[in-house]
Amino acid sequence: MARILITSAIPYINGIKHLGNLVGSQLPADLYARYCRARGHEVMFICATDEHGTPAELAAARAGKPVAEYCAEMHEVQAELARGFRLSFDHFGRSSSARNHALTQHFARRLAENGFIEVVTERQFFSIADDRFLPDRYIEGTCPNCGYDKARGDQCENCTKQLDPTDLVNPRSAISGSTELELRETRHLYLRQRALKDEIEAWIDSKTDWPILTTSIAKKWLHDGEGLQDRGITRDLSWGVPAQFPGAPWEGMEGKVFYVWFDAPVEYIAGTAEWADARGLDESAWRRWWRLDEGAGDVRYVQFMGKDNVPFHTLSFPATIMGSREPWKLVDYIKSFNYLNYDGGQFSTSQGRGVFMDQALQVLPADYWRWWLLSHAPESADSEFTWENFQVSVNKDLADVLGNFVSRITKFCRSKFGEALPEGGEIGAAERALIEDLERRVRAYEAHMEAIEIRKAATELRAIWAAGNEYLQSAAPWSVFKTDPERAAAIVRLGLNLVRLYAVLSEPFIPDASAAMMQAMRSEDRTWPGAIAEALDALPAGHGFATPEVLFAKIADDEREEWQRRFAGGRG
Length: 572
Ligand SMILES: [Zn+2]
Known about the structure:
The chain is an alpha/beta fold. It has helices spanning 19-24, 26-38, 54-63, 67-84, 98-113, 197-205, 212-223, 260-263, 266-278, 283-290, 310-323, 357-363, 366-375, 387-416, 429-450, 454-475, 477-483, 485-506, 511-520, 532-535, 557-566, and strands at residues 3-8, 42-49, 91-94, 117-127, 132-133, 139-142, 151-152, 169-173, 181-191, 231-232, 234-235, 257-258, 299-306, 333-337, 340-342, 345-346, 383-385.
């Protein structure tokens, strides 16, 4: 048994996330957390809402609400949707928590004491029309790197380059659209990432097992152009973690807060503290996950995120941790994802294009989406959601293969033997061949899950379901029963045991269907299978079961067409 700390990139607070966001971090993190728990490991799975920064202020202003109230409401909305998708966080925290305020200020203080913070006087855009300084996302313009004309002042969405507002070509105010901007003098705190560059690089070089997507992005920002740059970590905003606080080792930061990208990853740690607080546990309960000197030495820490978040997790956040010169846990493995596209274009929150988490659950239960999204996860390249592909995948994999198997075996048993596993008969060559095949496939499935190769794991799981279906088809207990009921009983007993085995193996992907299968088999034995022959002997003759309702309904063509139309025009 190992201890595994898992964090998903924290979703931003300003609205409901689309399925592309979901499959880029929270959903695969949940898959892995569920798998690790099923294998008996001690898991801490943390996520939160990312609540600071300009978009929260802008969204709250549009909603006509104080920003704190807006964030509290949106946190509840996102938490409810996470429950709807069965995301099994140990804690879903908030980056605006008191814990995160304290920890963020702690890290800033330590960085300053160690010489990694610099006070820089710089010229910043002041908008005459808006009568204020414009921080990062309050400015838009053309990306100097790729020419994208809606780049934000902190990052270009198109090429992922981290930017400063003054890098933008043709800058304009995101509040008023005014181009009447003036550069005025102001002071900010900078994180001296250049001073930590060699340490960060040596650390990244030591991660030889990381996905190429992760290391290639990290190395790009370490080496491209002028290499890793120092980074401004304060902004002229009121909503956030104050950069001037009692005992701060600098002066004159009144009215400024820490940049959202400085405090957001600290929330992984703070969220674990919030988890302990919510359970009335003491400090050691969360610190044993994060402090190498307080028990975290044997923790394996895995992060999940979309590729646009990789620079912050491989460079900026490690710089914060390393520069603190305190023994905090650094990430061991970063699983990053490409983008999921929607029907010939991109998902877009701003344009309301694609399917959003709330809409998805209004159309179909979570398992349908979980299965499609995970089995098509954009791992090695971008992938695309189309309604045709979704229909085919649901109908074939879930309804025709898994659902059909469960339905046929339970209904046949009920009609010929009643609702209990029948006695008599012995397994023969066909069953031994199936067991051998499953033995190999289950071990391969485990290996893919350990390696977090999600599509490969899904392919293997589908093959495991298909093997049972093919076995049942060729063993044909409905024919055998006429001449040799004992032999038919052995086939059926094995088949019903397969239902339980499938429930256990499938739980990380489709937890609701898994629960329904376990309930139908009247079993609570979720033991992960060792030897397959033993696992298929778990339910003895005479064990009662219930014939389940249809596990997965097929998607009809007219339904698919209706959804296609409904989601073509963007959110209403
Ligand atoms: Zn760009």
